[in-house]
Design brief:
Strand order of the largest sheet: 2-1-3-4
Radius of gyration: 28 Å
Structural class: mainly alpha
Helix content: 55-70%
Shape: elongated
Order of helices and strands: HHEHEHEHEHHHHHHHHHH
Length: 371
Amino acid sequence: MTIWKHSLLTWRAIFKDKGAMLLLFGAGLVYSFFYPLPYHYEQVQSVPTILVDQDNSTSSRTLSRMLHASPYLDIRQAHNDAGVIQEALWHGDVMAMIIVPSGFHINLLAGRTAELQVASHGGYLLAGSKALMNVTEVAMTMGAGITLQKAQSMGANPQQATDSLQPLVLETRALYNPNDGYGHSIVPAVMVLIIQQTLLIGVTLLLGKKTELGQLPKGSNAYLGMLLTFSIIALLNTLYFFAVAIRIQQYAHLGEFLSLLVFAIVFCVCIAAFALLLGRIFKTRERGLQLLLITSVPMLFVSGYSWPAESLPDLLYYARWILPTTSGIHGFVGITQLGASLADVALELKMLLCLAILMIAAGLISYRQQN
């Protein structure tokens, strides 16, 4: 049979298999809406925080009002029982604790350094660090206000007092992620992983069943026909994620469509060839699902996106390029989020081309020699 005939037979097999249909088409739709949902607010807000005011002074009450005004903190007053506070932190009822010690107001009036005691829950890194950061900002703002008042009381005009307080003006601007949000950072990268993993699991599910029944297609035309079908499916999912879903979820999209299309075609052919190789390894229908499902997080980790690649062991640093997701994540994020051109992601594109050529060659040999 011709390549086109085998491709058509593959489409028919997919449409008759509900499990494969769900993974190859349905999973992407579900993930595109429900995975970004927890990151809708981009940043941690209303972190539950205990405030213990042991000074009960004008200055401590001013600090309390400023802390209450922060949208990132949910301030809860507490008594001075250290055991109760510690239990609340241990059980995760609160993420941070602020203690205003006695003598806080007196130290401020005397021009001495007034201390605050702050602790956060180390088990929840984002919440704990956000609480510490905002308490620091509030304390620095209050301190700046006191310094400004002292400068004016000594005869400096408001402008001079402000200039002496901040002789250098630092203006920070987050490029490509103006909200400095976690969603903008992680969701586009995970989309690449979702595209690959749903394809790999769907293909191994379909081919595993054929292997069990002794109906796995063989020959070069059969292989190329399946490669064509699965490449088209991957391309449809990729264009949906990066041309439609990313806009529905209101994430930044700066790249040109032509660059996206060219990179997507190479990536999809590569992961389709990867899936067909795995389809020859797994001899039962469920084996691919059982083994591939747990590989998603390690793939993201070793890609060098969520963890610095330079911190990986030497073996992993070089071996990670064997996975299409390593080049795919950096390439797609570069094009769609950073506005990169194909020339800017040339390394990733070349790696995917090399992987695709090697995997297709191995696939042709494997499917031609099978019994």
